[in-house]
Amino acid sequence: MTAATLASRFNLDQRLVKAWPLLLGFLIMSVPTVIRLGEQIWSRESGAHGPIILGTGIWLLWRNLAGMDRPATGGAPWLTILLLVPSLAIYIFGGAYDFISLEVAGLYGAGIAVLHSLMGVRTLLRIWFPVLYLGFCVPPPMWILDTITAPLKEFVSYAATSLLELFDLPINREGVTIFVGQYQLLVEDACSGMNSLVGLVAISLLYIYLLRGSRPAQAMILTAFVIPIAVAANILRIITLILLTHFYGDAVAQGFLHFTAGIFLFGVALILVFATERLISAVMDRPRAAK
Predict the structure, then answer these.
(1) 191 carries an active-site annotation
(2) How far apart are CA 196 and CA 81, in angstroms?
(3) Which of 125-129, 145-149, 229-233, 286-290 has the highest mean pLDDT?
(4) Choosing from 15, 63, 122, 191, which is the catalytic residue?
(5) At what angle do helices 20-40 and 77-96 cross, to 10 degrees?
(6) Which of 105, 106, 119, 150 has the lowest CB atom count within 10 Å?
(7) Model's pTM, two decimal places?
(8) Is 137 a catalytic residue?
(9) How many C-beta atoms surround the C-beta of residue 121 within 10 A?
C-alpha cells in the first residue's frame, strides 16, 4: 500500500496539514532525545535493544494502520491537550536535569497525544500493541535497576560458583566478587539478567503478536517464563567468563570474548523463549483441538 492510498483511507491529508505545528514540534523534540539515547543508553550492552525496538515499533505501527478497514477520525482537542501538557512538563524536566528516563517518557506521552489528535481514541485502542511496544524504548530509571539487580547479581554469582565448585576449580566468592586463581572478577549489572530482561520481554511479545495475534493470556504466561530464562542465561554467561579466565587468562575473558559471550547467550535465551512459546501454544491449543 502506497503512502497516498494510506492517507486516502484514513482521511489524514487534511488533518496532517492542520496538525503540522504539532507534528513539527514533536519532530523537534524527538531528534535531540534520540541522539542522547544513542549516546547514553543505546551505546551500552544493556540498551542495545533500543534501536531494534524503535525500528520494529514504527514498522508495526505503520503495518497496523495500513491494515485497517475503516477510516480513523481525529480525537477531541481537549483530550489531546490533557495528554500533551503533562507529557511536555515531564519531557522538559527530564531534559533540564538530565533524567533520560523522564525525558523519553515525556516524549513517549507526547507521541501518544499526537496519535490521538490525528486518529482518536478508537484507533488508538485498535493499535494498542504497537503503542505499548514502543513504550519499551523508555529506559528504566537507574535506581530501579540498581534495586533489582543487587539481589540478582548476588544470586547469579552464587549459582555460577556453586556449580563450578563441583568440578574442583580454584574458585572463591565474596558477595559479587569472584576469585579465579590469581584473578578477580566483579559481577556487574550487565551480568545480573535484568539488563537483558527488558529486551527479551519486548522481542518475545513482538514474536507472539506477529505469530499469534493479540493473546494477552499467552503473552503474560510467556513473560513469566522470560524472567528465569534471562537469569539462567546470565548464569551461563558468568560460568563462561570464569572458565575463560581460568584457562586463558583475564585479558582474554575481559576482552572481545566478554562482549561476544553476552551476545551469544542473549541469542540462546531468545531461542529458549521461542521454544517455550511453542510449548505454551501447544498446551493452550490442545483443548481447542480436542473439541
Answers:
(1) yes
(2) 36
(3) 125-129
(4) 191
(5) 30
(6) 150
(7) 0.77
(8) no
(9) 12
